[in-house]
Design brief:
Two copies of one chain form a homodimer.
Chain A: E1 2-6, H1 15-27, E2 31-36, H2 38-46, H3 58-63, E3 67-71, H4 82-88, H5 93-102, E4 108-111, H6 115-125, E5 136-141, E6 150-153, H7 163-179, E7 187-191, H8 202-213, E8 219-224, H9 228-231, E9 236-238, H10 241-267, H11 270-276, H12 280-290, E10 298-301, E11 306-309, H13 316-331, H14 334-343, H15 350-364
Parallel strand pairs in A: 1-2, 1-4, 2-3, 4-11, 6-9, 7-8, 7-9
Antiparallel strand pairs in A: 5-6, 5-10, 10-11
Helix pairs in contact in A: 1-13, 4-6, 5-6, 7-8, 7-14, 8-15
């Protein structure tokens, strides 16, 4: 697989990005295309990365046809308005990545840049899969079962959603979970404020019967709550992009705050500090399990092509995992599977849905 | 102050509830009215509570006129639909509590029962404060600064909100934070998915200029995100009840999951287990700081009367704190303050608001 890697996006660009690409090229059979300012990329490649051992040789990878550079001197600044910028700067690195995918010169695009710009560029250049109303960002999260990461979508691409879109999110999440995360029969949940069928807001109350009665091929388990995010019993959680983003940030911050409070309590007494020393390996193991970097970034689902968005603070490690996720999404043809399943979804009139919804409410009150 | 305590509501009713009332009566100058099945209440009072030391004497408190019982034999079952049940069972314990407040025989009502039933009963019997469109549940949360708990509202009373309601939530939260939680100048934030003014969904984009330009007397600091929930720099966070409930449950679950993972890692090796022993006091201190029980339950703001809802799993300790919160809310006349501030809010037409909103968007794109 050929991966177009936006080398100019992210807080640590180009250095960490470029070296993430080198690691991906060295560890897999993929070809990594570094997209961005050629001089800056070559300069980064000349500085040895202090943390990568053994350090692969970029020159050898280039000579072997496993690593290449596509030059562009435009890039999006942090303070650019994302949607406007990708339209104005036709040759910014994100747009070039998307064009490589569009023209069949790359199989996947990966970026740690502004996720709004990434989504806008994908829509602008690749468009949408026929039948998909809105592409969604699906974020992969650690759960208590390390072998069973959770997919949460939409994580922020669509702040206000129609309930019909949530059905598409469920189908797209189901496909990604099967093909890329390797779940045989993913368990799908609808994020709500109570597990009873009738609980929720207008959006989830409408989406509930749609997911239960009109979405063939998914294992819909009903409403889920905050604790389902961490328990490892759900594989895909569906919600609007506002709620998804809030859940993600709250979970991240809660984990971070807990860690900070624990540290403060331990540091408060010399005796605690000494006692904590032998526990350091245990704490490090915990940190590793919760590290979102190893879960391979967030696919933008619903566009015709494999597009992976990673955290702005991504290091080389996160980038290498994201390249692998892009490669797998392309290899298993996630977009094709989405097109087929979305195309086969039954049409549901709003009247029919209202009737189904009233049935759910009546059973529960 | 006289506190009507619903002795039949909650997972641990009546035992923990009744003893929570006894502790509150013994530790404060409040009079606690235990509302519920008299035989069950008297039976609970005869069993000594194993964890309370020193154990106050209920008979002495009753003789001193500090503790009393109001009998009712109706109560709401767990599987009752809340709103319907409080209308059908006129004399259920929650309704009796509210009537005591309505008739001036109690100054506050406290319950660990179904929060939906509590809100329905309050609306049904007490009604709304003039000018308040929707009462809201405000939850008090621990933050990294132990002396500065956070108030989050709405935490679940209104799943779908109009942006005008969020302005009322901000004012009500500001008042409760000042009068009951003791913040001099509470910092108010709007829960969103980015701190820039233009970020958010339709609801928050409309609420933003309302809070910034048309809500005199509040210290509005703009959009906040997940990490602001834990950092102790915001005193009141405003959002719709769906998002509020999701944030609460996600934060609770994240903390719980982290604790569980830490425990599992430590228990995985004998050596870790031994090493962790001397740290137990530190871990207990952390657990205490994060204990939501000590923060006194969630007031239902916007009804004429002090109404406090506590967690269904409340123990005697949480009930005693909730009684104190009810007492303080009544003493500082939170409802009166809300009526005055809400009555003085300027009217804003939707056209005016649209113009202000477009201004915010234009500045940021």
């Amino acid at each position: 697989m050929r991966i177009a890697l936006d080398s100019m996006g992210g807080d640590n660009a180009p250095f960490e990005i470029v070296w993430g690409g080198v690691v991906a090229a060295a560890q897999t059979s993929d070809h990594i295309i570094l997209v961005g300012d050629e001089a800056a990329i070559r300069k980064s490649l000349k500085h040895r990365h202090p943390k990568i051992r053994p350090l692969p040789d970029p020159q050898a990878l280039m000579a072997a046809g496993r690593l290449s550079i596509v030059h562009t001197d435009e890039s999006i600044a942090m303070d650019d308005a994302p949607a406007a910028a990708v339209r104005r700067k036709k040759n910014c690195s994100i747009n070039v990545c998307m064009r490589l995918v569009k023209e069949g010169k790359a199989d996947a695009a990966v970026s740690a840049g502004n996720s709004g710009a990434m989504a806008a560029s994908a829509l602008f250049i690749l468009g949408r899969i026929k039948g998909v109303a809105r592409p969604a960002i699906a974020t992969v999260l650690p759960s208590s079962d390390a072998s069973r990461p959770l997919l949460l979508l939409d994580a922020g691409a669509n702040t206000d959603c129609h309930h019909q879109w949530l059905r598409e999110f469920a189908v797209m999440g189901d496909i990604y979970s099967r093909l890329v995360l390797g779940r045989e029969k993913p368990v799908i949940g609808l994020m709500s404020i109570g597990t009873e069928d009738c609980k929720g807001n207008e959006l989830t109350k409408h989406a509930f019967p749609l997911l239960r009665d009109y979405t063939p091929g998914i294992d819909f388990r009903g409403n889920v709550e905050g604790h389902d995010v961490f328990e490892g019993k759900t594989d895909v959680i569906v919600c609007d992009g506002f709620v998804g983003n809030v859940v993600l940030k709250t979970a991240e911050s809660a984990a971070h705050a807990m860690g900070g409070w624990l540290k403060r309590v331990i540091m408060s007494k010399l005796w605690f500090r000494l006692a904590a020393l032998p526990l350091l390996p245990a704490l490090r193991a915990l940190k590793r399990q919760m590290d979102p970097e190893v879960y391979g970034g967030a696919p933008l689902l619903g566009v015709p092509g494999a597009v992976i968005i990673t955290h702005g603070s991504s290091t080389y490690k996160a980038i290498a995992f994201a390249c692998r996720a892009g490669s797998r999404a392309a290899e298993h043809n996630v977009s094709q599977a989405i097109a087929e399943r979305i195309g086969a979804l039954p049409e549901v009139s709003e009247e029919e849905l209202e009737t189904a919804m009233r049935g759910t409410q009546a059973q529960n009150t």
